[in-house]
Design brief:
Layout (H helix, E strand, L loop, with lengths): L3 E2 L1 H9 L1 H9 L12 H18 L14 E2 L3 H8 L5 E4 L5 E4 L3 E5 L2 E9 L13 H13 L7 E12 L5 E11 L2 H16 L10 H12 L2
Parallel strand pairs: 1-4, 6-7
Antiparallel strand pairs: 2-5, 3-4, 5-6, 7-8
Helix pairs in contact: 1-2, 5-6
Length: 222
């Protein structure tokens, strides 16, 4: 049996191996919670903002500290790679598909640099960027599997609200964080995912509330 993985489903593996196994082997997915629409709206607005600068062959002010880089110019290809249902994909020899939807790409000396947007409600805490390292590693591996060269680092661009000006517009503060990437880590994530799915149902994570509630419900029926 072949599987299709994305960064979000692979993140589930770290959260709880049993939930991950049930998701793919039994089609039992975690209940969907309330999803705020604001981050999705912000993501769309930021992409349009970057595209307007791409059309003028300029960098947006959020990237003013960078030197020798340009925005990726193939907008039609980027639109495909931004699509959550398509993204940058790669299929291994067994037919397992790995895909990820990038937000933005930079070009420098013939290499690509992944740039991912994040919106938050408050300023960054130390180490916040490490929460997204696996995601960036996966994007870089997928691009390399598709024949592109990438730098050994990526960028996270964080937006958080700073104030409301006199005209009622929300002013956002931005933080551009460089993150070193490792494609070997992404390869290990893929390998572990397939290993878990080839075995019996694993034990749940100790702090998995979903598994804990499922056990409580099962006990009510006995």
């Amino acid at each position: 049996m072949a599987y299709s993985f994305s960064p979000s489903t692979l993140a589930l593996l770290n959260e709880c191996p049993r939930c991950f196994w049930l998701h793919f082997k039994k089609g039992i997915r975690r209940p969907l919670g309330i999803f705020p629409s604001l981050p999705s709206g912000m993501d769309s607005v930021i992409k349009c903002h970057f595209d307007s600068f791409r059309a003028r062959n300029m960098l947006p002010p959020e990237l003013s500290s960078l030197r020798g880089v340009n925005l990726f110019q193939d907008l039609e290809l980027l639109k495909k790679w931004r699509n959550n249902l398509r993204g940058v994909s790669w299929v291994d020899a067994e037919g397992n598909r790995f895909r990820g939807a990038v937000d933005e790409l930079l070009e420098k000396g013939g290499k690509l640099i992944v740039l991912d947007f994040k919106t938050r409600g408050f300023p960054l805490k130390q180490g916040t960027e490490l929460l997204y390292k696996d995601q960036l590693d996966i994007y870089n591996l997928l691009l390399r599997k598709n024949g592109y060269q990438t730098e050994d680092y990526a960028y996270l661009l964080f937006y958080h609200p700073l104030e409301v000006d006199e005209h009622g517009s929300v002013v956002f503060h931005t933080d551009l964080i460089r993150v070193e990437v490792s494609v070997s880590n992404a390869e290990k994530i893929f390998a572990r995912a397939l290993e878990v799915l080839q075995g019996e149902m694993p034990e749940p994570a100790e702090d998995c509330d979903y598994c804990r509630w499922a056990e409580k419900l099962a006990n009510l029926d006995t």
